[in-house]
Structures are given as structure tokens and as C-alpha cells.
Amino acid sequence: MPIDALLLAGVLASAPVSSEPAPSESAPVHARRGPARWYETSLADPRRFSLAGHFEAQLIGLAFGLHGEFLYRPFRADRGANLRVGVSLAGGPEFFYLPLALGWRQHFVPHHRVTLELGAGYEQQSFFVPGLDPVTRSAFYGEGGVAIRVIEQGFIGTQVIMSWAPFERPGPGLGLRLGFRWNFGPRRGVKPGR
Q1: φ and ψ of 38, to 5 deg
Q2: Quick one: which of 1, 11, 47, 80 has the fewest CB in 10 Å?
């Protein structure tokens, strides 16, 4: 028997044998070892999506109403980088307010009980004043807040939102939100108590 065949047989005989089958490429992501990479989960994986609803108060102009938003995690389903689409409807003694927002929100330490939030983006603001034509303007906003996990996939949180319309009809905006966010899909691989 040639010497290289003997060496190969010795290497194969000394290799450890695992009783666990190696996960195949077709195995579900949660069955593989290690965290899920963005390219290993479907773009439609439920863990990538969140919905939120808030009570909102606009402090400049004094209007109160409801705010809803949709969040999507484009890179990794188990991380805190979110594309955000939001809409509000608020009313007060002087006007009705309808902003549509598109932006980015980062949830820091998203798997912990307390999560910090920072975001920024673009907002199309519409004001409806009785007896006058509607007023629409473009604005940029920044937001900061904190959320506390109250159930496995649900958070109660509060945010402060500041905006500035630099172009037509320039002016500031300042708002407060208090509400609930629901993350879809099960939390996999998260240690309890965090």
C-alpha cells in the first residue's frame, strides 16, 4: 500500500466523529449555529417587521392626535437598524395636522429590556386651517426616545420629535409621543432576563 494512502487512512481514523448532523444549506436559519446573517433570512421574514401606535402631542401650535408607524429591518432581522414610515393625524384649536414621514431609526441594544432610540428623516407636513387653503411644506426631523420591553415582543416607549422646515413657509416643530411597538416573529437566541 502506498505511503500517502496509509497517511490518509490514519488521518481519517483519528478525525472526531460528531453525532450531530451538519446543518445543510436548506436547513432553517434558526437550526444553524451562530447568528442569522442578513442574506440568510428572507426579506419577508416576520422578524424584520414592527408596527407601532402612539398618542402624539404637537407643542408648537398645540394639537393632539394619533400616530402610526411601520418599521422594517433591511439588514438583519435580529438587529436594531430600521427603515421607518409614519403617519399622524392631530387636531387642535387652530388647525388639523397631517404629516407623512420616511426615515431611519436605530434601536440600540434591541434585545435588552430597555432600548434607546434615535432617528432622522424627511417629513411632508400638511396643515388644514378652517376657512383657508391647506398648507403643505417639506421638513426634516430628528427624534430620540426610550422603550421598555413589557412582553416578549412588545415595548412601551416615549419619544421627543423636533423638526425644521427650511424652504417654503419655514418654521420649527416639536412633539411628544407615548405608545406601544410590536415586533413580529419569535425572538430566537435571546437569553432570558435581558
Answers
A1: -60, -30
A2: 1
Question: For 116-175, how does the pLDDT look when each residue is reduced to its tens digit (9 = 90+)?
Answer: 999 999 999 999 998 899 999 999 999 999 999 999 899 999 999 999 999 888 999 999
More confident residue, 44 or 72: 72
Q: Whose CA is closest to 155, among 110, 102, 101?
A: 110
pTM of the model: 0.74
Please give the single-letter amino acid code of residue 128: F
What residues are paired with 71 via a beta bridge?
50, 84
User: What type of residue is 106?
Assistant: Q
* Residue with the three cell numbers 427624534: 143
pLDDT on residue 189: 46
Number of alpha carbons in the 13 Å side-chain half-sphere of residue 2 = 3
- What is the distance between the alpha carbons of residues 36 and 79, in angstroms, rounded to a whole number? 10
Q: How many CA atoms lie within 13 A of 82 on its CB side?
A: 27
Counting every residue written for the chain, the total comes to: 194
Contact 113, 133 (CB under 8 A): no
